[in-house]
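Colleagues,

Please find the record for the two-part complex below.
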Amino acid sequence: MNLRITKRGDLPKKQEIIIRIAAVLLSIIFAGLILLVFGLNPVKIFTTIIDGSIGSKIRIQQTIIRAIPLTITALGIIVAFKMKFWNIGAEGQITMGALGATWVALHFSDSLPMPLMLFLMMLAAVFCGGIWAFIPAIFKAKMGTNETIFTLMMNYIAIKFVTYLQYGPWMDPNAGGFPKIAKFPANAVLPSVFGVNIGWIMMIVFTVLVYLFMTFTKKGYEIAVVGESVETARYAGMNISRIVIVAMLISGGMCGVVGMIQASAIEKTLISNIAGGYGFTAIIPAWLSRLNAVSALIICLAFAMLIQGGTYLQVSLGISSAVSSIVQGAILFFVLGSEFFLQYKLSFGKKTKGEVA
Amino acid sequence: MKKFLAILLVLVMMLSFVACGGDDAETDGDAAALKVGFIYIGPINDGGFTQAMYEGAVASKEHFAGQMDFIYRENVPEDTQEVKSTALNMIDEGCNVIIACSFGFGDAMNELSAEYPDITFLHFSGAMKNDTNFDNWFGSMEQARYLTGMAAASVTESNILGYVAAHPYTEVQIGINAFTLGAQAVNPDVEVKVVYINTWGDAELEKTGAEQLLDAGADVITYHADSTAAQLAAAERDAWAIGWNYTKNDAGEKYLTAAYWNPEVYFNYALQNILDGTFKPESYYGTMKDGLIAIDEVNEAVPEEVRNQIADIKEQMEAGEFDVFTGPIYYKDGTVLCEEGQTLDRAGIWSITNEIEGVSAI
């Protein structure tokens, strides 16, 4: 008796849906059992998560505030992933984007008109985020370095660099020696529409743009071809280095915008934790969306509901933060696990002759 | 496959039936006059800062028996996103008072206090406040630190005291300097070594910091950090440990004493004022006199003479007759912090920007 894993052919749509539903149900059962062990009422917990994410105006606003950085980062990641360029460096690109925006916010006059100030901050953010993605891209294109490790390591350089600025040249002299960077002036803070910073409008615009870019433009098509087969792309006469670099500039630039939004609208300054883990978390919805921009938006909204629901759960029921992490983890475990079963199938049986172990 | 799905569905439904049979009794008719939300930086059982705050809240809830509802969220990092989101969720849950128990929560409180004039925001440490609904509160930890310094200096054999410190920031440096002054009062040859870990709490860093100090010859360890990791590190090497924030003994026999908070003193006072409608921001500063600040029982290993001395000065502090920062005091670079014959008042203490003579950072 042995266990074999084989790649599936195309799965009928119906079976795919069944697997996905089964995953969600399993996650509910599993998380529910854990909650029962803790002596908590699972039904109450699940309804509280939903109620906590959409049950009132404040809660919906908080959900959307969480969805903004998640979605735009996921969109950035999609552009790179489509090319099978594994950009794990969104966290660093967000941080560098925030750094660029902060430099503008703190060095330009606070009498600059707000739209101009915000525009300059955005430019700086795209530039810095883009650079942070460009470095691993050029190494990949010219020398074939491993982009996964490269982009991952770039994260820590960015974060530590912000820490350095925080303790050194950018330390706020008015903070009593506390290592923090000064707050932005009022003209560098993103305005709000319907109680949520205008990042939500950008989130929708970016979703549409990325969808159109990936589906209808020549560059988008080239990116997809490089992702499918570099050889094919080369045979078709595409300039692969250029495609890799352009795609990564777009990817990093978009992550940079996230940094600008978070620094300007949320923190109103630069902190080393400005990316807040969104750069890593966004990989999951990007992947679950099958690299489709519109699906990514929807999945990110669901993710944001889970994050805000988890916060609300702790606040309203006084549950330890560990419990809400376990619930979130269980749901992710099964939903991500189902992706495996969508692509591979397990079979039990004796090893057949001639098969290599 | 379909059968499997059907079984799953049945399981989910069974689970929900089992669960529905449970509690529904906890819906209390909104009788409470106030609902208070506490935001904590660490877990409520950290044996240190957050546990001190949490147990203060529990004591205060008992004090107001039934007049108030208390809710909380633990493990909230010091970024505005998390802090604001937590506070807004609490406000949405009907809280009319938010108590933010960490320095880094201040900016979010400042923003929200302008947006929500009907809600009162009480921020631990810092100096931010407004005229109506936003206040800060802290205490004269220098008093308790001074006394623990005396205890430390009386048991050291190497004349080196170790201090694991959070940030090189005024609040922390006040504690280091007061501890040093207390130690010097008992033993003028004593030296205080400091390791900064650049975070309010990280058990791993706190532990390695303490080990660094032990390696440098320290045989008494104290700390300005959230957990009790430094105590554990000290006990492991058979060195003395002095607790901070809370009275948890993680060093067994080697636990000398602790400088700690009784936050319920402030909670009871401020919440009573809010309840009575007489609340006014005042930048509250608790002392040993009102009991916000305290020192734990001193280990018998401290010579009786010094124990009596500590008890004596403690009494003077409780009567408000003892100034920790009495000149002459010099910064370690030789500049004057406090002239001969002068004492530092609260504003003077809170403009400290460095460590004093006798302290060295490693």
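DSSP finds eleven helices and 15 strands in chain B.

Comments are welcome before we finalize the supplementary table.
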